[in-house]
């Protein structure tokens, strides 16, 4: 049984027990379900639901260099903060770079994130 099918099975088990009106122990005994497995899956499914509720889908925003804003410096003489990319997080905001990133650009992005994370 694959992971998704297994989760679906245990969700159905939880629904069946809940609607039966029986205690967990009695329901498990009558249905030949190991009580320890039942409680493990009940906790695991609850924890996954809590995790999903606390981590909603990210919202995206396009940030551009508008006229009058700081000019993006593309100077190969600046030291690289990363040759492969970087992820910057500030509170609930997150920016990901995929490729070389210089320190000046990272600094400006960090200042922007800090000033807008309220």
Could you walk me through the main structural features you see in this protein, from its secondary elements to its overall organization?
By secondary structure, the protein is an alpha+beta fold. The chain is built from 4 helices and 4 strands. Helix content is 50%, strand content 13%. The strands form 2 sheets. A two-stranded antiparallel ribbon has the order 1-4. It has a two-stranded antiparallel ribbon with strand order 2-3. Helix 1 (3-20) crosses helix 3 (35-54). The longest helix has 20 residues, at 35-54. It starts with a helix and ends with a helix. The relative contact order is 0.09.
Q: Whole-Å distance between the termini?
A: 45 Å
Oligomerization state of this entry?
single chain
User: Helix and strand string, N-terminal first?
Assistant: HHHEEEEH
Global structural class: alpha+beta
Major beta sheet, strand line-up = 1-4
Shape: elongated
Identify low-pLDDT runs.
Answer: 68-76
Mean pLDDT over the residues: 74
The description of the largest β-sheet is:
2 strands, antiparallel
Brief sketch in words of this structure:
The chain has 118 residues and is an alpha+beta fold.
Would you spell out the secondary-structure blueprint of this structure?
Blueprint lengths: L2 H18 L3 H7 L4 H20 L25 E3 L3 E5 L2 E5 L3 E2 H14 L2
Antiparallel strand pairs: 1-4, 2-3
Helix pairs in contact: 1-3
